[in-house]
Amino acid sequence: MKNELFDIAFENTAGGMFLANSSGRVFFLPGVSSRALQGPDLSPRTSALLERSDFFSNRLNLDGVGARLRGRYFADYAGPYIHIVTLTNRCSLNCSYCSASANSAPGRDMTRATADKLLAFVFSIRGGGLTLEFQGGEPLLNFGVLKYIVEKAKRLNRGARKRLHFSVVTNLQNMDQGKLDFLESNGVAVCASFDAVRRVHDANRVSSAGSNYDRVAGWLREIGRRRARGSSMEAPNAICTVTRALLPYPEETVESYVKNGLYRIQLGPLDPLGRASGNSGLGYTPEEYFAFYRRALERMGELTLREGRAVYEKGAFNILKMTETAERNPHRNLEVLIRLAYDHNGDIYPSDEARMLACSGDDFFRLGNVRRDTFSGVLEKPLARALIASCFGELSQPYCARCPYAYYCRISPVYNYIFQGSFWGDLPSSDRCRFFKWMFGLVLRLKTDRRWSRIFRVWLREGVD
């Protein structure tokens, strides 16, 4: 029977071709162009690879394709399970790039009454999983309500029996032993803001009480000591916001993370929201970020081989894992489908970025309030339906329908709205789209390199997304 290509998307580059299908298989084929797909010019090795990866219509694993398509289009959808809770808009730092425009003004804390409505709202969603992620501002400034939500959620879950998980994203400025004891004993994971290089971190994350870098590093090491003594506390995560001042220090950034017990590194490009939108000294071109990232990734690879353990970047790891298994990351930030965000007053948003936009005075993406709305009522709103449609770019965007990365990528209506003045945006000219295409291209190319294949095997064996 003749092999015929089935349902493909591709992109030609100078060094080869990226080829993908709706089964979630995606490859970089060095030295191959789309012309080779029109005739018998594929090598036996490449042809065999495509045959076993659902690229030929007469070789499809129909059960596997069906299962992945059902997952892709949420056939068993039961509602979002990631809920980002803003406990306060207050903050003890004055960060130059604060996306939330947080400050020390009083009266912007979540109350217990609002927390009760929030818990009723999220527990009404019938899904089997529930993650509550506490953010701010600085959530530790409203630690009493954090404790209240954790303890009440556990009581409610005795009947609901959901897979319950908690995390807190904090600058650690207001951490103390008592707070950490509570987080440890209740299984609350810690994610810190950590810009790695002391002089850069302290210049960006301004504290009136001495070096915030020292506080962050100290508490990260304390969590490491507790884990070494047998604590079941999760390994801490940390987010590095890359600003112009950090660009000369990619290797130092990686080494600082490892020195402080962090082997999963998250290098976040600067989001020009809030204060960062008016600070031209923080930004850079995409090419400058790419150069920084590539050097940092190379250092992670060197340390992985030298230390015999995974030192990896979270974004690259997720791309690696998804393209290796053809399974999408279950924690993908799909608005309404997987996540919702809540301001301190109970206002509901599709994402924390949308909530931050509202902090700047534009509440276009506000979906309701937990005091008045039900989840089913939120789903009936035209905005919510448009947001759900945006989760399937191949159905709503011609540019995505042709893109080999569409299976794993996502459209960001909030980004489009802010930077392109449109919910749907213009993806061919989008810097965000360009960034993710570069990331996918980098990882897929490295997968064809023998040395990086060794590094990636260690990442896949030990890495956590």
Number of helices: 18
Number of E strands: 15
Per CATH, what is the topology of the domain at 82-325?
Answer: TIM Barrel
For the report, how would you describe the main beta sheet? 10 strands, mixed
CATH architecture of the domain at 82-325: Alpha-Beta Barrel
Within CATH, the superfamily of the domain at 82-325 carries the name Aldolase class I
Q: In one word, what is the shape? A: globular
Notes on the protein architecture:
By secondary structure, this protein is of the alpha/beta class. Among the domains are: 1-76, no CATH class; 82-325, Aldolase class I (TIM Barrel, Alpha-Beta Barrel), CATH 3.20.20.70. 42% of the residues lie in helices and 15% in strands. The chain contains 18 helices and 15 strands. The strands form three sheets. The protein has a ten-stranded mixed sheet with strand order 12-11-10-8-7-6-4-13-14-15. Strands 1-2-3 form a three-stranded antiparallel sheet, with helices on one face. Strands 5-9 form a two-stranded antiparallel sheet. β10, α8 (250-259) and β11 form a beta-alpha-beta unit. α8 (250-259) crosses α9 (286-307) and α9 packs across α18. The radius of gyration is 23 Å and the shape is globular. The model has no long low-confidence stretch (mean pLDDT 91).
